[in-house]
Amino acid sequence: MNELLPPCTHACPVKTDVRGYLAAVARQDYGEAYRLIRANNPFPSVCAWVCPHPCEDHCRRGDVDASLAIRNLKRFAVEKAGANCAETPRARNTGKNIAIVGSGPSGLTAAYDLANLGHTVVLYERNQALGGHFLTSLPTYRLPRENLQKDVEAILAAGIIVHTGVEVGRNITVKQLREEYDAVVIAVGLQESKELPLPGADHPDVLKALPFMRQANLGENPATGSRVLVIGGGDVAMDVARTALRLGAGQVTVICIEFREVMPAHTSEVKEALEEGVSLVNGYGPVEVVVDNGRLTGLKAQKVKSVFDSSGRFNPTYEPDVFITLPCDTVILAVGQGPGHEFINGSGLEVNARGLVIVDTTFLNTSIDGVFTCGEVLTGPGLAIAAVASGHRAAMVVKQYLNGGKWVTAETVQDTIGVLPSAVADRIPHHNRGEMPVLPAALRVQNFAPYELGFDEKTAIFEAGRCLSCGLGAQVFADKCAGCLTCQRVCPYEVPLVEGVARMPVEGCQACGICAAYCPAYAITVDNLNEQEIKAALTAQQSNTPLVIFTGQENRVDVLKSSDLMTVMIRVPTVGALQLEWVLSAFENGAAGVAVLGCRETSSRHYGGDGALKGMLARAKGLMVAIGLAPERLYYCLPEEDENMVPLLENFYRKLQLSSTKGVEQP
Amino acid sequence: MIIAQQKNIKDIAVMVEACEKVLLVGCAGCVTVCLSGGEKETEILASALRIMRKLAGKPLKTSTYIATRQCDPEFITPLEKLVGDADAVISLACGVGVQYLAEKYPDKWVVPAQDTLFAGGSTEHGRWDEKCGLCGDCILHRTGGICPVIRCAKSILNGPCGGSQNGRCEVDQDMTCAWQLIYERMKALGRLRDLTAVQPLKDWSKAMGGGPRRMLREDLMAK
Predict the structure, then answer these.
(1) ipTM of the complex model
(2) 2.30.42.60, 3.40.120.10, 3.30.360.10, 3.40.50.2300: which CATH number matches B2-118?
(3) Who contacts A393 (Cβ-Cβ below 8 Å, separation ≥6)?
(4) Which of A594, A627, A634 to mutate to test the interface with B (most CBs of B within 10 A)?
(5) Residue range A389-441, pLDDT digits in tens
(6) Nearest-CA residue of chain A relative to B52?
(7) Residue from B55, B65, B123 whose CB has the most chain A CBs within 10 Å, to mutate
(8) Could you give the CA distance from residue A245 to residue A247 in angstroms, rounded to a whole number?
(9) pTM of structure
């Protein structure tokens, strides 16, 4: 079976329904947004702060103006939803016991899934608290620990038994665990910082990134000199440098082999580090830690000629005889991570040359029957959300194993929607990406407090409304299509193709719903516009004479909650998609009035449809006159930017009540 | 295609004012394409009639059906039960469809919701123009693909007449003179010389006026 996913979901290792939760944010349904975020990811609060968001890198809005600020919206949704999330129902106890080694993202995910499947899960963690790298490696200004705590507590609520302070390979072996449990999952991650074989690198003032961060995060304040030099070009190097600044280092420099434009660190991380006063030296590779009379005094580095070879592999070459020496008191190595080896002790587990556990990559089982692995110790360094995905996979294969077999399920082939055609991109209104407010650099280096302040509600709703709803567009019932060309003629994006019958290329369709509104044969349905729900809402209102409001998705309507108006609110992708039938249905089912809330071009998600809407409203009013309905009962409202719509609607409602007492209608 | 336009709803309502339940039958053919009688318009008309009658204190029940075409008897046969349950049938097809329904269901009051206008096509969204006079004796090969029979107000075959002014017809300044268009097209085709020939007399017996016309394909009818 083939499944076409929007690029954001396709890029996400756990296939989060990004499009779904952004839409929920846009309509202020934060509980639903949270439910969707957590559906495939037991770390919603953590990822809301630290996910490197591959979804954003693939967002097709980037071809229009700028990709959606997805992670920032996730944070907004998670914070708005609070703790209002439904518990995942647990299966009946199976009587099977499973040991999980390690409590990072993959271990906790596997534990959570297996506990929900009804197994008894026992988690072994060498630290005194859970979270793995989330706990020990990420600086708190990027991940406030209460967020980690919140996710961990929700995971443990599935009934997981925890043994902290137990190091597998030292206090107990994998072999012993295997004898005690029906299955074992090793999820120890990559615990060791890589070293560099440089002269002088064994000096005690040459530190390694992970121990440095671990000490800093556990409040042990690692000692550094006033001049710190960090070697490495990734996000960890940025974390180390910025942490060193916050610990009081007077001067922090990052040196890396890569040139600025190809640094592995996220651009924003580099930018923020520079803002905070970190210096950056690109294109130099370390040659020697300079030690003078037993004191570390600097780092000698050689100028890089090229970083990658012709086949794109990391294979730096250097300019001969071009060296610099950077003075410093402390060197911190942030040049990658590898697995520790403690956990292997006494287990008989086979590992490869890189120290990674050898596994059957389909079934994740190691060289010992019933012992599985997941996360970075299996895959090597990667995204935390990829480790979560690996944890899900491990839980699935363990489930199969405990059921007495292993088999490959017929997996759905997942593909993604193609490139947004430039002709369509040119017709989409441009709107700036919502910017995350941050504390000034001078303030944020003073402590480890978080400096990203979060979206306000207005920014979040508007930002979520920028989503292109990729893949939720129009579908054609070919057997009903008359090939009349109406869809092609009304589409603001000129997407429909009519060759015999109409076809809506998914790459281009913007899911505005205008074609469906004007199709004379009801041959078009739009996934982004639930007609059944709309019809149900209209027929359910009955005789309590409410006001039916049709609004484009751009308009904020939460303010109506503070009003006494009895309203039925129906959101459509754009009011250009409004159908005359719905207006009539509202009146037929007892509406006192129908208000249509338009949207100014400055905030409109779609151009076009205005002319068609005006034509439809004119026809509606003419028809209302003919059948004896006062046309004043249909109100088109185009509020000014940021104008409060409540007084406008209340005024309309009062007029309706006056009209009805005067008996305006004459059939 | 046949272009049709819905009647004023008040006129339609009068036709069924004595009825308590009506069946509205749309057509998925020409009137769907010209946006006047497809499924969407059928539902709109049904809803509007119900509201109208509700306001008048005489509620009306409606049912709807969309025929693939109303101009073929096979497509209106499945309506039998729906027709039987209704006091009247409102056809949203062209006049052809109305008659087919009336013939098929001789005991039922069948009324038209549309005025059938002409044979034509769309020129832009929301605009349709008459293009063919259905004269039964096509001469478009002599007039550059532009029909003087229907597009010339006088239907003259050797135009233009003296009423052609600046390319416009004297009957209506908004109407382009068909013979001006014919002249320009023949000129562009390098066939102006063809227009110097006097057009032969046209056999108007093939046009309407001699009673309803019929076309037979005996090869297809052979048993």
Answers:
(1) 0.94
(2) 3.40.50.2300
(3) A364, A374
(4) A627
(5) 999 999 999 999 998 876 656 566 789 999 999 999 999 999 999 999 999 99
(6) A627
(7) B55
(8) 5
(9) 0.89
